[in-house]
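Q: My labmate handed me this sequence with no annotations at all. I'd like to see what the chain might look like in three dimensions before we decide whether it's worth expressing. Could you predict it?
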Amino acid sequence: MKLIKIALMLCVTSMSAQSNFVTGSVTTKNNQILNGEIDYQDWKKTPETINFRQGEDIRTFKPEDLLAFQVENDKFISRSVTVDVTEQQLSKMTDTQKVMFEDRHVFLNVLAQGNANLYEYYDSRTHFYAEKGDTFIELINRKKLQEGNQDLMTFKKYLGQLNVLFNDCSSLKISEGLEYRRLPLSKIFNKYNTCISGDDSDNYTKKVEREKVVFYVTAGFAFSNFNFEHPNSILENFDGGSFTTPSFGAAADIPISKNRNKWSLRTELLYSAYKGEFEPNELTTITDGTMYLEQSTLGANVLIRYKFKSKNEDLFPFINGGFGFNYVLSYENYVSYKRVNAISDEEQMFDIGSADSYFTFSVGAGVIYKRFSFEGRFMISDKVLGSVYGSSAITNIGMFVSYQLF
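A: Here is what I predict for the chain of 406 residues:
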């Protein structure tokens, strides 16, 4: 069990440390555009620095070094801003706390451009900035405690700010229900820019691709090893053995980041069945005996998957790791034996039962090619017969093949 936990930790560390250089460009302070590659780390928190590569040369840029940069579907500008840093963690808030601001030089993600521009900055929370002509302001959305009754309320100053900013478009009304989120704000800026310009041909709105869940049918085959240890006089000389385990079921890849070619949550529902017969390692209290292990399970697996980019757009190597919960559907686990010096040589049976359920830890690696996925996976399950039978673990080395449905 310790080995599988260590392997999972190494997988997470490896995935976190991976570089992801993709085509991009930077605009220097003297307005020179440099084309190359940027280490795109699918940022949720706005990056404080970026790594830019041209050939073998890698340079690190801070916001102070650039005017802008662009990578994949993200455009960033460099700007000196004032950030609302008023405490927003409820456990630390008071009804008399002061509103606080901080000056920073940061990268801002461009969400909309036209007669009015919308930018996004994320540190521990989201900040939106609006720009129109000489006006550049943070759109304020702040929680605060009311004095006296300690009720939590939201100060939606951004609604009034937008009403003032867009007052030259009479047909555009700011609804009280306008949410302080990327998509609703981008849409309202796009409507305003279209209102002022008459069309949207010269306006820019960041395209946000909705990450879709990908569904698969999957089947696998594993070489399994049953490890057993118990002091009972009948069971003490059985230590398990090898067998094969076929599996089949359904799976889904759920994106958990902006870049669906990187992180996803792999969920699986698998039916597995195995059957094994094991002889004792030596004969002492029994003259003849065989352990029979026959069991079927329905397993629900949850794996964190990291996909690497490759030059082939149809090919994505990946690694993943996680755990599963296996519910035992049916079992027939027993030992058939004859005792030494018994009065009768009639064969006897000893039922060894089964756990109602057990956990499985998994790590794997593979490749996605077009609609197919191929994975080699190492799995370990503990206490498959229940805690009453001491050590009863199954280790598996298997191969899974999946086909994307939609």
